[in-house]
């Protein structure tokens, strides 16, 4: 995981955010292009890291893995349907939603197994294979045995808010009240140096007007 995070970061960045869709919202009998075309710009995953989710999907680099979905060839009705493989479908989708970002994608046919002791928190509307029913009237009381899953690790501007917020919270600490902390061997100068490094790291995740705003904040500090 550490090496993967390193491969997604450049220009001084060191942190990635995790996203996932458990299960991936696929309708039974529909192809991967069908599912992704129906989502449009609505990303099929949710943020797992403690960042504030942005309204606009943006990232510098990402690694995306989808498992449990195969590509069924149909008559092309969109650029995604014209792709030959599921890997090409996912890569084309990522390029359209995140233009200019470095994106890698992997497809695994084997779904994520959810047999006991996996917790039973799935909707009864899901099929045994974890898909949404093709008809709203469909209902299955059978336990979900496997699910398609989509995960993503992103070097994203969303991390700026998280890192800068952490910097501001630490900056408010009165270190004179934490004698035991510094008694453990941490020097006051080292603490302040680490604090400035955290602030610099947060600035590595800014984009455009955000960088200008950060400079204004720096002047006011």
From TrEMBL:
<dbReference type="GO" id="GO:0005739">
    <property type="term" value="C:mitochondrion"/>
</dbReference>
<dbReference type="InterPro" id="IPR049942">
    <property type="entry name" value="DML1/Misato"/>
</dbReference>
<dbReference type="GO" id="GO:0007005">
    <property type="term" value="P:mitochondrion organization"/>
</dbReference>
<protein>
    <submittedName>
        <fullName>MSTO1 protein</fullName>
    </submittedName>
</protein>
